[in-house]
Write a structure and sequence with these properties.
Keywords: Acyltransferase, Transferase. By secondary structure, this protein is mainly beta. 5% of the residues lie in helices and 44% in strands. The chain binds zinc ion. Zinc ion (ZN) is lined by residues 36, 38-39, 41, 50, 52, 55, 57.
Length: 146
């Protein structure tokens, strides 16, 4: 009974998607790339079979993708679906990682402050709310603080 009450008072946080994003307890979060064991190409998100038209292998291994990348392109968003309204305005971007992977992601930071080719770093945090209004934890990129 006491356990149940404790659970109810805990914040209900939903995880974005276990196949693409990992948040280890004692290490920084990372995106999961899928490396084809036959042709060696790395894909994100998960693709099976390998989309390489000369390959089509179904054997993939998970690799941790680099946590830093460069903004390829971005756009500022002012109107979103109901579960994203409390996060507006926001910036969405394509971020290129050194593995040759282009990731579509939300950017954490002030709208209008980002530039193409800017280096950004992966973080975990709320990206939208579920239908009960509780935050969903996902990946996003932020400016590198140094
Ligand atoms: Zn392949």
């Amino acid at each position: 009974m006491a356990d149940k009450k404790q659970k109810e008072t805990k914040e209900d946080i939903t995880f974005f998607h276990p196949d693409i994003f990992e948040t280890p307890e004692n290490a920084p979060p990372f995106l999961k790339g899928y490396k084809c064991k036959k042709c060696g190409k790395i894909w994100f998100p998960k693709f099976v079979p390998c989309p390489n038209p000369d390959c089509w292998s179904e054997e993939m291994e998970v690799v941790a993708l680099s946590r830093r990348g460069k903004i390829y392109s971005y756009t500022d968003v002012y109107i979103g679906q109901p579960t994203m309204r409390s996060y507006m305005p926001m910036t969405m971007a394509y971020v290129d990682l050194p593995e040759g992977v282009r990731v579509f992601s939300q950017l954490e930071g002030e709208v209008g402050s980002f530039r193409c080719d800017e280096e950004v770093e992966l973080v975990a945090g709320p990206v939208r709310n579920n239908l009960d209004g509780k935050p969903i934890t996902g990946y996003k990129f932020k400016k590198i603080s140094s």
